[in-house]
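Homework help board

Subject: predicted structure for assignment chain

Our instructor gave us this sequence and asked us to write out the predicted structure in token form, then describe one feature. I got the tokens but I'm not sure how to describe them. Can anyone check?
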Amino acid sequence: MVVGASAADITVAVKGGRTTAGEVVRDHLDRVAASSLNAFTHVSLDRSLARAAAIDARIRDGEDPGPLAGVPIGLKDLIDQAGEVTTCGSGFYRHRPTKSATVVDRLERAGAVIVGRTGLHEFAYGFSSENHWFGPVLNPWDPATSPGGSSGGSAAAVAASLAAVAVGTDTGGSVRVPAALTGTFGLKVTHGRVPLTGVFPLAASVDTVGPICRTSADLALAFDVMKGHDPSDPWSLPDRQPPSAPTPRTIGVPTEWLAGAPLDPTVAAAFSQTLDRLADWGADVVEVNAPTLEPWGHLNVLMGAQAARVHREWLGDPSKVYGPEVAERLDLALDLTGDDLVDALEWQSALKVAAETVFSEVDVLVTPAVGATRKVIGDPLITVRGVDHPYRTVLAYFASLVNHMGTPAVVAPLTGGSGLPHSVQFIGPWGHERQLLDLLATLEASEVVGFRAPPTSI
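My token output:
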């Protein structure tokens, strides 16, 4: 089996006897060992090879190991896997769980093999994955640049074919931003569609867990395995059959949201070309006027208040040291008041009402995935049209609002062009992941979106 194959192709080959899970996992582990991208905080060498051998034995016995049989998975290092240490990218947090996160149980029951734990921004509270304690994760498109965050290791691992699929978390864009900067596919689910049990929280009311892949089919395959109600998770949605709907055709462009964006000229040009290609494909591309859909509102208040609650017991403890960026953000969060939180909740309620109105008019919304494609490691700023902006503002501008709406969104790499990848984001109504994934599959077949391998393979 050639490294770089899709998860779907790996499973077919393993079940069909054309290769073994052991061979697939060993090939990926060899690439991880040779990689200089710093995508993993820990590699589960013996454990993953033993699991692959068990899958091969089941196949020889005539059993079906599941829809992800033999697929190598990278797991963000804030999601518990029984017996492995969860670090959250922290200098002090070390937790060895006796029970795996629900999402890990589901992946392993489906035959997946978790090959290691992927690097992240400390406690998932940032967008660069330049980790003070573990070092920066490098972008395989340009090792001088960040792969984004906070799930940067997951995205870098998939882009460089160190894993076929990786799992990340998305609280303000932490799956979609790194997917965009590495040219991979990323899914942010409806809040509550994938359980949070066993996942270290940043802001539980907007936290989500989602896959990063190289094809839309793999994104759909991973989502089908991961989704579903979990009674142990208070945020988990009950299992309901989502409303059936055809592949989205009416695509809205949110004018106010775009008007204030720190948008690099190359990103703006790629997005304009994408709208033309969508129209050529047969979409009805329309402008949507929705002033409420405009960052930033109270984004940082809602997230910060919850982050402060999680970390308050450790802040000020001299034995619990945070990296400078995260420490600064948490210090600011501690100053938030109850009035700040109530104002933010009112803003979020109005945001959800506005989103519901928009989705009564269009099937999906479309935006660029990020405001710029290049974030230099070590530089806190990104220059857009001659103006310096905090990097988080540029990278999260189109992502964070979606978490506070609670709706699903997908990010996909655009075809054509050269150099760093450009990506597009589609946002759908609550529970409509399947329609978004169907849209991606159709656009991928039409070569509007699609993965291309980066020049720095390892």
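Reply (TA_rk): Your tokens look well-formed. For the description, you could write something like this. The longest strand covers residues 113-118. That's the kind of observation they're looking for.
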